[in-house]
């Protein structure tokens, strides 16, 4: 929702819209892609992989919830089964 708000506020209806990227696209990941944010993410990500107990982040639970939320790793679905393409 926050990115949708930024899209309309900072690009569509802004008196002085933010510049597009070199390919002419609107980039709503500019906050996440800042160097300071990426450095902190890299540091935290390393801690996740260095912690054998995985208590620091519960990354497996997060991953499973994220995938289920987007329609993947659903119980009872055979993902190896062929599907008919229309």
Description of the structure:
- The protein has 86 residues and is mostly helical.
- The chain has two domains: 1-27, no CATH class; 34-74, no CATH class.
- The chain has helices spanning 2-12, 35-50, 59-69.
- The longest helix has 16 residues, at 35-50.
- The radius of gyration is 19 Å and the shape is flat.
- The model has no long low-confidence stretch (mean pLDDT 88).
Protein traits:
about 45% helix; 3 helices; 2 domains
Residue fraction in strands: under 5%
- Show unreliable segments: none
- Secondary-structure-derived class: mainly alpha
End-to-end C-alpha gap: 33 Å
Q: Major sheet: size, sense and barrel closure?
A: none
Oligomer class:
single chain
**Overall pLDDT, averaged?**
88
Q: Radius of gyration, rounded? A: 19 Å
Query: Any idea what the shape is?
Result: flat
Tell me the count of domains: 2
Number of distinct beta strands: 0
Please give the count of helices: 3
Helicity range of the residues? 40-55%
H and E order: HHH
Topology:
Layout: H1 2-12, H2 35-50, H3 59-69
Summarize the structure.
With 86 residues, this protein is an all-alpha fold.
